[in-house]
């Protein structure tokens, strides 16, 4: 859904700090480094770590993290959930738009969602064609079985995707961090004065989010962004978080609930249904099945990656439209 023309325009952040990556700025070997070959066989005689003071470790971490919190407090796009769909969206956005600030918020310590294994904890990952195009783009090898392809281990797919996403200089992953609410503004829709547009996310350390019932006064943090992509899945402690919140704030009438397993209909439905649900909030992946009442698909992952590609496209379209409205 495109934002109504009368909607309030949330300003798009004017700060543009990112440039195309300069690979020369990443030293792969420091001047005083040894090679592994130079160390080999000398572990007892000629080996010691370089000295360090503990506070140097603390400062090396905290300085960067707090700089990132400052940088991404105003983001261009926030992705909620780093499962196969969210990471695929991040990969496409990172490739297409090095000028945008993109924050990924992942509740778990370990990103990747349900894509570390195939079905029933087996290793191989199945993707139906045409999702093999994403694997080819990513550089992940597969066996071609005709109408579908098989990656030898789901972890090979997820670790490659994650590694590529993390290398984009304009993407920051905040893991162990939970989105626990959405920032809203009145959409200015004359037909519905209660309609909102989404203008950012409310975050907290996941461990804090999990203790609101037994501790008090643990206020959250915030990230403003004109576009949010929600890919929180259907399962787990925070599954389908954003669409559940839309229901509880009266922006969606109800969730239709994920239906039984039917691979043939489920995957098309997720990709086709990936869209802007309310202004500023695009939903993709299995979270969608909870709104649309579409079937589950089980252990076949093509819909997750192509839904991520479509979510990225929808996000860029909405972002550019919002920016044009701001400068009009
Ligand atoms: C236990 C299990 C059950 C499965 N059941 C099904 C099934 O019934 N049907 C089916 O089709 N496939 C199922 N799968 C297969 C497959 O895992 C999913 O289809 C696929 O992982 C969904 O991808 P996704 O990117 O949409 O969501 P996920 O892979 O679930 O990723 C969502 C990510 O969002 C994060 N997240 C959630 N809420 C928040 C929040 N508020 N803030 C920040 N991060 C958040 C989660 O930690 C997670 O990393 C299952 C997998 C597993 C492991």
Task: Characterise the protein shown here.
The structure is a single chain. The chain is an alpha/beta fold. It has a single domain (about 75-325), classed as 3-Layer(bba) Sandwich (FAD/NAD(P)-binding domain), CATH 3.50.50.60. It contains 10 helices and 14 strands. The strands form 4 sheets. The chain has a 6-stranded mixed beta sheet with strand order 6-2-1-10-13-12, with helices on both faces. Strands 3-5-4 form a 3-stranded antiparallel beta sheet. Strands 7-8-9 form a 3-stranded antiparallel beta sheet. Strand 12 (about 275-280) and strand 13 (about 280-285) form a beta hairpin. Helix 3 packs across helix 10 (about 300-325). It starts with about 35 loop residues before the first helix and ends with a helix. Flavin-adenine dinucleotide binds near residues 106, 114, 178, 232 and 286.
């Amino acid at each position: 859904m495109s934002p109504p023309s009368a909607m309030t325009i949330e300003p798009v952040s004017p700060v543009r700090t990112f440039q195309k990556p300069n690979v020369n700025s990443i030293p792969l070997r420091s001047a005083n480094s040894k090679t592994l070959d130079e160390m080999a066989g000398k572990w007892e005689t000629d080996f010691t770590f370089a000295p360090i003071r503990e506070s140097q470790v603390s400062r090396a971490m905290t300085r960067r993290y707090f700089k990132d919190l400052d940088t991404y407090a105003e983001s261009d796009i926030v992705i909620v959930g780093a499962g196969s769909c969210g990471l695929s969206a991040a990969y496409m956005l990172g490739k297409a738009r090095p000028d945008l600030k993109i924050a990924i918020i992942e509740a778990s310590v370990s990103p990747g969602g349900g894509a570390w294994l195939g079905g029933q904890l087996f290793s191989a990952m199945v993707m139906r064609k045409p999702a093999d195009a994403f694997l080819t783009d990513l550089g992940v090898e597969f066996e071609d079985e005709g109408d579908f392809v098989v990656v030898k281990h789901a972890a090979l797919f997820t670790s490659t995707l994650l590694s590529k996403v993390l290398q984009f200089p304009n993407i920051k992953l905040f893991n162990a961090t939970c989105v626990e609410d959405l920032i809203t503004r009145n959409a200015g829709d004359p037909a519905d004065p209660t309609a909102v547009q989404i203008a950012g996310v409310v975050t907290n350390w996941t461990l804090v989010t999990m203790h609101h019932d037994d501790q008090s006064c643990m206020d959250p943090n915030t990230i403003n962004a004109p576009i949010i992509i929600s890919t929180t899945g259907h399962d787990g402690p925070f599954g389908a978080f954003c669409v559940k919140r839309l229901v509880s704030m009266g922006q969606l009438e109800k969730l239709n609930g994920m239906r039984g397993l039917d691979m043939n209909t489920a995957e098309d439905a997720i990709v086709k249904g990936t869209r802007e649900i309310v202004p500023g909030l695009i939903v993709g992946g299995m979270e969608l099945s909870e709104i649309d009442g579409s079937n589950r698909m089980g252990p076949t992952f093509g819909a997750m990656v192509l839904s991520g590609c479509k979510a990225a496209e929808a996000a860029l379209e909405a972002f550019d439209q919002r920016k044009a409205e701001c400068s009009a």
